[in-house]
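Action item from last week, closing it out:
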Amino acid sequence: GCYVHTSALVSRGNGVDRHFCWIAKLVRAKSIFALEESGFCVKIDGVDENSGVTKLAEGDHQTADKKQECLTKCAAFAGATGCEVIWGQDNRGCYVHTSVAIHHGNGVDHHSCWLTGTLKARAVLSNEESGFCVRVDGTDENTGVIRLGDGDYDTATKKQECVSKCAIYPGVTGCEVIW
């Protein structure tokens, strides 16, 4: 299964087979936009948000310089709630979002999404650790654990699916997969 932890007591993975753990850390944004997320900007349920989207520039925006150029344009746009770049396909360009419904990037190739600094901190999950998530003293932490998915999570695709779900869960402190 896929589980999100919300207890501040989770600290690390304990090395047990057929489990992986990631610990969340809050990262503060340095600009009006939070950290770059892969994929296009979507609502909390993963549905594309096309309302309130304006194209600000044409062309591929894959390089760091082009992304920064787009972020600058988005920051100057009144009411911006997010910024999105697309490269390597027909609809490539720089887009600003004004809808408050956008929530995260969905991981799709050839797109990047940034949300405005209304999210002052964002959970970033650590490197994968073997074992289930435990307290610093090695004891199991079962309070604040919520199941986000059933089944085996032993493939890279399934692990990434779980980590993506955990990363956007309010109050996330850790993520765990079991198979």
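Closing note: The first strand starts at residue 2 and ends at 5.
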